[in-house]
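Students often ask why we bother encoding 3D structure as a string. The short answer is that it lets us treat folding as translation between two languages. Here is a chain of 387 residues written in the first language.
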Amino acid sequence: MASKLLNLVALSSLAIMACTYGVAPTTALSTGHLQHANRHLAHAPIAAKKKRDQSKRCKARPSTSAAPTSSVKPQPAAVSSSSEAPAPTTTKAPAPSTTSQAPAPAPTTKSSSGNGGSSTGSSGGSSGGSGNTGGIPFGSKGKKVCLAWGDGNSNSVYNFKTDRVVGIYDWDVYKPDFVDSANLDYWAMLWGGDGNRISKFEQTVNKKLGSTLLGFNEPNEPGQSNMDAGTAAALYRQHITSKKSLGYKLASPAMSSRPNGQQWMTDFFNACGADKCGVDFQAVHWYDIGFDKLKTYLEDYHNRFNLPIMLTEFADQNFNGGAQASMSDIYAFMAEFINWAENTDWIIAYCPFGVMKDLPDINQLNKLEKSDGTPTDLAYMVLNGPN
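And here it is in the second language, the structure alphabet:
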């Protein structure tokens, strides 16, 4: 009897140990794995978007060598629920909304180091430089606004067409279907020097798409088209200068506002030789805080290269680690810039960054397009003038 009792106790002990130390159920193991997989699936669209951003539209770059900060961006204003695009107009964009926009932190007083020296240029009404501005539908007072367009074939473009808006580009050669009916001048761009882009450019621009071709996108930036000036000059001559015979005007590679931009352009023109590769216009980008810095930056470029200027990206945006501009600061910046640019004849085009519903890496108070495809109050000022 005692031996049977001992056997029963031993069997019970073995059963308890098996329950305690046995293999975990399959469902318990799979839970953590699925959560990990779901996180990767959720990030897949974001990764795809970033890839498109780098290839289809230019991302803003610092105006100094300092790395961008990751401060929290203010949210844009509330938007209306209208989704239907109105018929084309050549007079006034939709009136501004009455919704209020949250201000950003007060701007920093830190000076920019991206201006490349002091300027003695005129504040307006000066010579347009040595570039050839004949035969283009833009460049005169009241005909200088262009759209840095990120919305593909969306009919929302008609919300942004006024008599002042004359040009449009999309960092590529995909001329949107609406361009001709909206009476816009399309500017194709050879974004970079890789074989696929060059092949697409050559196949597309041989049929004249608009008045002007745009050169490489920020080749002085490692994260953009990224090439040395000598290589860029050779590719530019082969693939862009050669298109002058088709009647195109030519814009230079577009420099970021990093301080190395002017030296890069000097090296580019030196490599081109006496004809400057046939460049008609100087294209530049600018991101910083305050109109006075922008004015000095543009005057420096004009004084140095003596070409009419196309400002194809700009925003009142701080990439130098300080605070961002408030909404009232941005309105004041844009009004002052527009009045100056319209009265400075060597500024022939200006495209605020950017007309797109999803504005990447920029203080959202600079947004030009609401989620319903209509202009923000800031865009209304650009489209119709500040007065």
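Translate back mentally: Strands lie at 145-148, 165-169, 185-186, 188-189, 212-214, 249-250, 282-288, 309-316, 347-350. Keep this in mind for the problem set.
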